[in-house]
């Protein structure tokens, strides 16, 4: 007997990009909390993630989940110089906006707004999309993220030059590259294993 | 630490170079990008997805991006898995019939519908289905959606994979393979461009 997909409970689908907190409903069965072994729990890395259906679903391949999470945390949270956290989150939000991941965009737009205090610009990115005018430095980060997210990849020397002209050194540019690249990973999991829902 | 680093190898990063120093500033990301490659393509336990299936999917996904050098690396893995000439030919032919540009796709009905864009919804051709078999056929159709129009994802393609004999856990692994490669390809391409812009 093949397994079957899940039918999510009745919910309201978000139809715009938003900074609001969203839920996420899986299309295939996450591990139940009582099924989690020590290996699964280690792979979740944070105790709070036990409550998350998304992370309990990814925990079905615990080695892949743990390596994914350790890659993620270093790209976004490593405080050793490079791109400021707000702009790493901007790369994540812009990538999510272009790929169309309403859930991922909501999380990383919130982070970008929190760290940059530029709520209006973040809202503009969500409302208008990746062509929004956010000032030259942010425009350069968004344009680089868009070029990296396109298939085939369209990131070229002109994007590097524009980032340098905006004051980014090569470590910061590598943070843009890794931030946008990582969200091409994250968006695809979040978009394809379940769907977002408005809370409440 | 793993003895070879796939991203360094594919970019051409040599010890002591400027990019070697930059990657060393994000040591956990460097290490776990490599660990991700290893646990997805050469895991200690293959579980429900064979090495050949992992590299067939990997080769298909990378070639869809038109990344020649990275594609050659995954094709070599597929050859090393003992793939038949028929399978190698079918993967190459599938790339030929599936390649397009992205991201495109539709949004839930509402204000974002104005941003909907159309593109190729890939269905493996009848002549390739026999060589690929039902498991890889559904995996390739799902991967094509993930690569080019991920916002069109729906439970139906997951059900098609379950019906073809994949388990829920296998689907998580297959999804991780395509999603991880979407990352690895872009890091390699981006860092290569950065290195060439010195």
Automatic annotation (TrEMBL), chain A:
InterPro entries: AhpD-like, AhpD_Avi7169, AhpD_core, CMD-like, Uncharacterised_peroxidase-rel. GO terms for molecular function: peroxiredoxin activity. Signal peptide: none annotated. Residues 62-144 form the Carboxymuconolactone decarboxylase-like domain. It comes from the Bacteria. Keywords: Oxidoreductase, Peroxidase. This is Alkylhydroperoxidase domain protein. It comes from Humitalea rosea.
TrEMBL record, chain B:
Gene3D superfamilies: AhpD-like. SUPFAM superfamilies: AhpD-like. InterPro entries: AhpD-like, CHP04029_CMD-like. It comes from the Bacteria. This is CMD domain protein. It comes from Humitalea rosea.
């Amino acid at each position: 007997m093949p397994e079957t997909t899940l039918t999510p409970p009745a919910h309201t689908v978000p139809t715009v990009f938003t900074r609001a907190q969203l839920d996420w409903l899986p299309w295939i069965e996450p591990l139940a909390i009582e099924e989690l072994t020590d290996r699964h729990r280690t792979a979740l890395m944070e105790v709070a993630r036990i409550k998350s259906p998304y992370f309990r679903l990814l925990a079905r391949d615990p080695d892949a989940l743990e390596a994914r999470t350790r890659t993620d945390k270093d790209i976004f949270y490593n405080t050793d110089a490079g791109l400021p956290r707000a702009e790493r989150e901007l790369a994540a939000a812009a990538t999510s906006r272009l790929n169309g991941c309403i859930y991922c965009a909501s999380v990383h737009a919130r982070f970008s707004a929190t760290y940059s205090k530029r709520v209006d610009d973040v809202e503009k990115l969500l409302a208008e999309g990746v062509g929004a005018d956010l000032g030259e430095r942010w425009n350069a980060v968004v344009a680089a993220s868009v070029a990296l997210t396109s298939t085939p990849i369209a990131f070229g020397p002109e994007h590097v030059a524009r980032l340098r002209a905006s004051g980014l050194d090569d470590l910061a540019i590598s943070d843009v590259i890794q931030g946008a690249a990582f969200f091409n990973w994250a968006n695809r999991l979040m978009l394809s294993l379940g769907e977002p829902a408005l809370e409440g | 630490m793993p003895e070879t680093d796939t991203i360094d190898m594919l970019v051409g990063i040599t010890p002591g170079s400027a990019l070697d120093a930059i990657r060393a500033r994000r040591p956990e990301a460097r290490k776990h990008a490599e660990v991700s490659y290893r646990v997805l393509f050469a895991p200690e336990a293959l579980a429900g997805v064979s090495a050949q299936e992992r590299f067939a999917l990997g080769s298909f996904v990378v070639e869809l991006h038109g990344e020649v050098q990275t594609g050659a690396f995954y094709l070599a893995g597929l050859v090393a898995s003992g793939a038949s000439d028929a399978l190698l030919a079918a993967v190459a032919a599938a790339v030929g019939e599936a390649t397009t540009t992205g991201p495109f796709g539709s949004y839930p009905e509402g204000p974002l519908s104005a941003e909907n864009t159309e593109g190729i919804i890939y269905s493996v051709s009848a002549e390739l289905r026999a060589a690929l078999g039902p498991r890889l056929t559904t995996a390739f159709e799902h991967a094509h959606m993930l690569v080019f129009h991920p916002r069109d994802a729906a439970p139906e393609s997951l059900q098609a994979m379950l019906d073809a004999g994949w388990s829920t856990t296998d689907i998580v692994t297959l999804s991780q393979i395509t999603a991880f490669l979407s990352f690895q390809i872009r890091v390699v391409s981006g860092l290569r461009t950065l290195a060439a812009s010195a």
